[in-house]
Design a protein that fits this description.
The chain is α/β, with parallel strands linked by helices and 346 residues long. It has 12 helices and 10 strands.
């Protein structure tokens, strides 16, 4: 009696005998063979915090997303924790802006106050802080500018100075760590930022503070609503001299490699949906590395607007989009949909 190899049997079967739909007959079967499992523990919820008391401000271009005063923020974080979301990332809106963003590393800065309040009321929440200058500077750029009498004549007027910015980023990271941040997340795409921050943290005794690097951040058109939320549009020019060209994918692997060599504990790709191929490439190149993806404000606003107009079913499309990001290889998803998605998944 001849024993057939299973693969040979499949190839010999008539086409109508090979029926993948058998595995899709019921919700239970589909769940049993599902390859990608989306869970609230995958989410990081971005929060915008500002000075003031008692009033939250909805962001016009991001329905359902608010700027929070610290007194109301703590209740919001408690709600987030009850939904099973393990982490938040904080973006601060300062009381006053200046050329280098002094409040970003002030002991009583808005983010520092928010960190302490969250850790006092919801100590189990992982607190990530954005380490960039654009929300805090009066020019809206991500670092120290090449301006004034001491400017470098070999660089354009207003160019973001790389090495002068690194020293400030180190001070910001240490200030956030002193306030209780678990993870600091440099987002400016400044060369050497991870090494500078790691050295500053270690030198200040914060060897256990993690670095989540925005290792692959594109100069994207999908950030518009965020700039409304963080009140951080650049006063002139753009950020193409330091953020990545959207046409490049191989360069992303170079950026990740550099940040890993400099001590990044986790890395991020931003935006997410237009760059699923990049998320996949990073995952394949670094299978052992925790990988985050930022489902950015423009991605959120598009689905919200389409759902509000009745063009798409919000629940179906949001969960599909988030599943796609995870399927591409992300371990963590920073998303403004986190609260709604966690409730739906529950």
């Amino acid at each position: 009696m001849k024993i057939y190899d299973p693969i040979e049997i499949q190839t010999r079967l008539p086409a109508l005998e090979r029926r993948p739909r058998r595995l899709r007959q019921s919700a239970a079967l589909r769940a049993m063979v599902r390859e990608t499992d989306l869970n609230p523990k995958d989410f990081v919820y971005p929060l915008f915090v500002r000075h003031g008391q008692g009033v939250r401000r909805e962001i016009r271009s991001m329905p359902g997303v608010y700027q929070w005063p610290v007194d109301l923020l703590v209740g919001e974080v408690e709600t987030i924790a009850k939904l099973g979301i393990p982490a938040v990332i904080l973006f601060g809106i300062p009381e006053h802006k200046d050329p280098i963003g002094l409040e970003n590393f002030a002991p009583d800065g808005i983010v520092q106050r928010a960190i302490r309040a969250i850790k006092q009321t919801t100590p189990e929440m992982v607190v990530i802080t954005d380490v960039c200058l654009c929300e805090y500077t009066d020019h809206g750029h991500c670092g120290v500018l090449n301006t004034g009498p001491d400017r470098d004549p070999h660089l354009p007027e207003g160019y973001v100075l790389n090495d002068a910015t690194l020293e400030i980023l180190g001070r910001v990271a240490v200030s956030h760590a002193e306030a209780g941040a678990d993870i600091v997340a440099p987002s400016g795409m400044i060369d050497g930022m991870v090494a500078a921050i790691r050295a500053a943290l270690d030198g200040a005794g914060f060897q256990n503070t993690l670095i989540l690097s925005y290792a692959v951040k594109y100069a994207s058109g999908f950030y518009g609503p965020f700039r409304d939320a963080a009140e951080s549009p650049p006063k002139f020019g753009d950020r193409k001299s330091h953020q990545m060209d959207p046409a490049n994918a191989r360069e992303a692997l170079k950026e990740v490699t550099l940040d890993v060599e400099q001590g990044a504990d986790l890395v991020m790709v931003k935006p997410a949906l237009p760059y699923l191929d990049v998320i996949y490439r990073v995952r394949q190149a670094y299978p052992e590395l925790p990988l985050a993806a930022y489902n950015v404000s423009g991605e959120y606003a598009m689905l919200k607007a389409a759902a509000a107009n009745g063009w798409l079913d919000e629940r179906t499309t949001v969960l599909e989009a988030l599943t796609a990001i995870k399927r591409a290889g992300a371990d963590l998803i920073l998303t403004y949909h986190a609260k709604q998605a966690a409730a739906w998944l529950a």
